[in-house]
Amino acid sequence: MKIAVYGRKVPSQHFLKIQRFFELFFEKQIEVVVCETFYRFIETHIPLPFSLKKYERVEEIEEVDLLVSIGGDGAFLDAANTIGKLPVPIIGINAGRLGFLSSTSIDDVDNVVDKIINRNYKIEERTLLSMYNPSNSFGLHAFALNEFTILKKDTSSMITIHTYINDEYLNSYWADGLIIATPTGSTAYSLSCGGPILLQGNDSFIITPIAPHSLTVRPLVIPASSTIKLVPESRENNFMISLDSRYATISSEEIIVQKADFKIHVVRLPGETEIKTLRNKLNWGLDKRN
């Protein structure tokens, strides 16, 4: 078995748990390769009695059985961006804060490693969205697991986003921006802007306006098979667009958003369910009046 590890800087209270994580794999003679940036962090902060291998390019981990993301949801999104179309499943170990994607606790590291080694897990497929614009702002990484966002830039004024679904005019959103979210991204930025939560299995996207001028404008759930065309307009003619945590600046141009032609594979351990994650992360059912 061969494992790849992706991570960011993590708080010091997790150092011993991460050390234990690597020691367990070493004891079981599991080959582990670590992304270069996290490798440098480990070298500086987490002493290990053995050396680790590192990788710099995605081609070096094409043959791994699993990629472990250590950190929060941001680290998981970076890992998904790295994997891209490779059919490598990702498990997120939460050493961050909320952790909808990185929902496996680092506090139970012995149990987690045991399940990974014994392949005691199931794999879920997650829908992504892809984006195209003439500027080709994101190159080969023009996809997102959570959401695409367009926002105003260099102005305090709202922008107008002319929106079409399958070439049929929907609306001209007058707002600070617009989010197009996947079911996975429905618990992220879209949720904070009043969007609904979609469970996995919903083959849908959400169009969520950010601070719209009109009170009648509300989030809209559409089939994921739809092709969404956006044409932004503003006084300054500058906009910021983002795919998950990656961003770029554009002038007014046509943007196409649609379902990606591949999916990300996410590992879920026994006892972990989507409903349980929602309940725990959002503190549902804890009201003493219930």
Structure description:
The chain has helices at residues 15-27, 36-45, 73-83, 109-117, 189-192, 274-281, and strands at residues 2-7, 31-35, 53-55, 66-71, 90-94, 104-105, 122-132, 143-144, 147-152, 159-165, 168-175, 177-181, 204-210, 220-223, 228-233, 239-243, 246-250, 255-268. By secondary structure, it is an alpha/beta fold. The protein is built from six helices and 18 strands. β16 and β17 (246-250) form a beta hairpin. A six-stranded parallel beta sheet has the order 3-2-1-4-5-6, sandwiched between helices. The chain has a six-stranded antiparallel beta sheet with strand order 8-7-18-15-10-11, covered by helices on one side. It is 19% helix and 37% strand. The mean pLDDT is 93. α1 (15-27) packs parallel to α4 (109-117). The protein is globular and about 60 Å long. The chain folds into two domains: 2-121 and 269-281, Probable inorganic polyphosphate/atp-NAD kinase, domain 1 (Rossmann fold); 128-261, Probable inorganic polyphosphate/atp-NAD kinase, domain 2 (Tumour Suppressor Smad4).
